[in-house]
């Protein structure tokens, strides 16, 4: 590690910058196992800055890592709710509802007129970047103002107990920032106030990987929290379920396997940023710092503290089928929309179809997968069943 310390640089080329974060994570891990007086170029803790909403918009627009999933999901949702005058989206995501202004705008242009839109979100989220300086309630107010401007009837609901932004003490405490088991108890028709005349949509963007897949300690059932969540939302009879996440298996117990997989996967955003941002760009440094936080969690932590446990798209698809979902193929219009989005970015970005998924790629390497699903029981009750598998 001393040799790597002399080679790695947080302001060097792509590999030097990425190596500096891996070195940092390895030193952090070593210090947890056997505390020593090890020194390293850089601060001891990753500083987390709260973004404004405007800064967040710029953040998600830097590379199509998030917009790819937004575009794929929004187009499939729009298709699935055809003919409905009321739409209810239960949104599980980490980007503070940045997906929905574009969707609201699309609803406003619907030839038959916009439906009423209800969005429900949990009060808590995984304590991972990006973090913003306003509460989820304020996010809802801003969405409501935009919907009003576009003449789309709108309602925003928050389920859970958090009434405002977390305090600095709460922000620093991983154990209090995210309570999945409590959230699962809220996923029922009564708490969600489900209505018979609504098209129910479940949207999961970079979320499911934070649910534990450990089957130990789950009372009454052999399901992990991850499978329990999928079973619960299936029982709500949604018209469509959108699942988007990073196409990378970081669930291995082997540290060596995680290091190799993590390096090969997270090299991608570092390399993509290199193509258009200078080495001394503050925006680039902040984006890379957020990735660095993920690297540290994957490498430095074990047990319940290691929350970054993504699965590949193939693994997740098999999980969905095992739980009782059918895959919905993406339509040609969605593919065209995504290609148009990618044309706005560097030429290294691409997309491929793979086993019912759409996969974002960088220089041929898989980055993010997007999938759409319906419960098996709903197959005969929906009009989007062509090609279900």
CATH architecture of the largest domain: 3-Layer(aba) Sandwich
Determine Rg (CA atoms, Å). Answer: 21 Å
Helix content range: 40-55%
How many domains make up the coordinates? Answer: 2
Count of runs of 4 or more consecutive helical residues: 15
Derived structural class: alpha/beta
**Which CATH class of the largest domain?**
Alpha Beta
Count all strands and give the number: 9
Q: Report on the biggest sheet.
A: 9 strands, mixed
SSE string, helices as H and strands as E: HHHHEHEHEHHHHEHEHHHEHEEE
What value does the average pLDDT take? 89
User: What is the overall shape?
Assistant: globular
What would you give as the CATH superfamily of the largest domain? Answer: Vaccinia Virus protein VP39
| C-alpha end-to-end distance | 48 Å
Assign the CATH topology of the largest domain: Rossmann fold
Describe the structure using short key phrases.
alpha/beta; 389 residues; single chain; globular; Rossmann fold
């Amino acid at each position: 590690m001393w040799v790597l310390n002399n080679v790695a640089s947080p302001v060097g080329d792509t590999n030097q910058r990425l190596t500096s974060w891996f070195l940092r994570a390895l030193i952090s891990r070593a210090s947890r196992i056997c505390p020593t007086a090890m020194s390293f170029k850089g601060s001891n803790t990753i500083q987390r800055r709260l973004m404004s909403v405007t800064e967040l918009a710029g953040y998600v627009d830097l590379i199509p890592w998030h917009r790819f999933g937004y575009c794929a999901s929004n187009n499939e949702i729009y298709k699935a709710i055809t003919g409905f005058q009321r739409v209810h989206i239960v949104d599980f995501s980490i980007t503070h509802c940045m997906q929905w202004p574009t969707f609201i705008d699309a609803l406003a242009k619907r030839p038959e007129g916009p439906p009423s839109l209800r969005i429900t979100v949990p009060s808590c989220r995984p304590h991972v970047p990006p973090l913003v300086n306003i509460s989820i309630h304020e996010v809802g107010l801003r969405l409501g103002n935009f919907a009003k401007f576009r003449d789309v009837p709108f309602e925003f609901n928050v389920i859970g107990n958090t009434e405002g932004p977390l305090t600095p003490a709460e922000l620093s405490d991983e154990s209090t920032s995210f309570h999945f088991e409590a959230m699962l108890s809220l996923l029922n028709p009564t708490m969600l106030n489900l209505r018979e005349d609504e098209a129910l949509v479940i949207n999961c963007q970079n979320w499911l990987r934070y649910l534990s897949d450990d089957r130990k300690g789950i009372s009454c059932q052999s399901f992990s929290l991850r499978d329990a969540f999928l079973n619960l939302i299936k029982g709500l009879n949604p018209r469509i379920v959108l699942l988007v996440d990073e196409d990378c298996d970081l669930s291995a117990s082997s540290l060596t396997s995680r290091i190799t997989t993590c390096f090969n996967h997270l090299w991608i955003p570092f390399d993509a940023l290199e193509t258009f941002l200078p080495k001394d760009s503050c925006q680039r440094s902040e984006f890379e710092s957020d990735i660095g936080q993920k690297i540290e969690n994957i490498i430095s932590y074990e047990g319940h503290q290691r929350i970054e446990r993504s699965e590949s798209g193939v693994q997740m698809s098999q999980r969905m089928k095992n739980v009782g979902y059918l895959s919905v193929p993406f339509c040609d219009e969605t593919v065209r929309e995504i290609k148009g989005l990618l044309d706005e970015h560097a030429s290294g970005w691409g997309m491929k179809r793979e086993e019912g998924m759409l996969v974002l790629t960088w220089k041929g390497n898989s980055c993010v997968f997007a999938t759409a699903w319906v419960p098996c029981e709903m197959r005969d009750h929906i009009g989007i069943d062509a090609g279900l598998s």
